[in-house]
Design brief:
It comes from Microbacterium galbum. By secondary structure, the chain is α/β, with parallel strands linked by helices. 33% of the residues lie in helices and 17% in strands. Strands 3-2-1-4-5-6-7-8 form an eight-stranded mixed beta sheet, sandwiched between helices.
């Protein structure tokens, strides 16, 4: 049985915890305030979930989701994530994170920043451009007409394949944006950000993105 570590228990992290548990994964979830504050969430998710520290979630996960504010990525444990695939849900909100010159100047992307912090991990963009509430309600079986699509991006083909499988399990088609350097196309203020779109519409929105 695959275990998913989730570092971050906000709206996205909580929705993914429920979604993974509902699909038969074991979930180990952490936040910045300590596992003792996650009792209600763990009880809600069910018996497949347990609370832990970020270090423990990183160690336990066969795959790990990082879903913390961008300003907190330097606190993500590095060593226990070595060799693992890390799903990055992050977006840059300067109002929350403070201004980051390299992002303001379009010299990097949020996922590239996480990859730099985790040099021995494989970072892949996932679930960053869908409202949290839609993660559990917006999916549909494969082959459904007008099925919603989500984008992913990674420097690893294997990581893209993993997220493609996960998206399908959650009920979404996948569009591969390409390497992490192109992941800006699906971030905040771009046409593909937090709108419902099928595969063709997502491909068009990605092409319309401007930096």
């Amino acid at each position: 049985m695959t275990t998913v570590g989730i570092i971050g228990a906000g709206n996205i992290g909580s929705a993914l915890a429920q979604g993974f548990a509902d699909r038969g994964y074991d979930v180990v979830i952490a936040n910045s305030r300590g596992p003792e504050t996650l009792g209600d969430l763990v009880s809600s998710v069910g018996e497949r979930a347990r609370a832990a520290t970020a270090q423990e979630a990183a160690e336990a996960g066969d795959i790990v989701v990082v879903t913390v504010p961008l300003k907190a990525i330097d606190d993500i444990p590095v060593a226990p994530l070595a060799g693992k695939t890390v799903l990055d849900t992050n977006n840059y909100y300067f109002e929350r994170d403070g201004h980051i010159a390299a992002l303001d100047d379009k010299k990097t992307t949020t996922s590239q920043m996480l990859q730099e912090h985790l040099p021995e991990s494989v970072v892949v963009k996932a679930f960053n451009h869908i409202p949290a509430a839609d993660i559990l309600t917006g999916g549909a079986p494969a082959g459904t007409d007008d099925r919603r699509a989500l984008a992913t991006s990674s420097d690893s083909d294997e990581a893209v394949a993993l997220v493609t499988r996960i998206y399908d399990e959650f009920g979404f088609d996948t569009v591969n944006v390409g390497p992490l350097s192109e992941s800006w196309r699906v971030e905040r203020d771009q046409p593909a950000y937090v709108v419902r779109q099928n595969r063709g519409e997502l491909e068009q929105n990605l092409a319309r993105a401007e930096r």
